[in-house]
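#dry-run=false #mode=assembly
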Amino acid sequence: MLRRDILKCLLSGSFILSGLLKPIIALARWNQTAFDATDFNNAINSYFPDQHFSETDKIKISVHPVIENGAVVPVKINTDLLKPESITIFVDKNPTPLIANFDLFPGCLGFISTRIKMEQPSNIIVVVKANGKFFTTKTFVEVHEGGCS
Amino acid sequence: MASSIRIKTKTRDNITTVRAILRHPMETGFRVSEESGELVPAHFIKLVTVKHNDKIVLSCDWSRAVSKNPYLSFMFEGAKSGDKLELSWIDTQDKSDTFETLIE
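#status=ok
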């Protein structure tokens, strides 16, 4: 009886601990400085400190060139760069220009499709890390009604 | 309560396409409430993790500028029909949700 109680106590203790630790560990890597940056250069330099970005035509951003409602902008990104490791989306004129980062683990194809908010006519800038190197491309999107508020 | 996560998968030629919709307000912190006239505090999903058979395949860091009820689609190789796929998210209020499905 006693042994069972101790076991129960230990088990519940470890559950509480693992429950607490998981979000803390996970949130630790979220880059607060880069996500809070209100200027595109600050955002990209805080997210990728001291990196060189090569412009490439091997990243394709599929997005409608004219957006009526900036609250929902469907964006599709394809890259045929070898060994894609991450895809990061910026919108240079948004109040906070770093939009989203996707870490692609081995087995992932160089493809992401999502929907983002855009406040005004801006460039969508995509950075792809592939085989340890950084590549970038951008496309301009006209936005009629801002979607950040 | 029903899960906030809906997932569809399709596997063809060893490539699995995952499409997911997460139910979440994704408040930017810039929106004024029509009822109260006050700013609605920022509240958005920060992290999304997708696992295939307990191995991470995709991990996302998001900002307030991912649209309300986020849509996410990606593709990966090497999964078989019947394999486990798990998606979980954590938001700025440390709320979270997890959903597991079998790959089709």
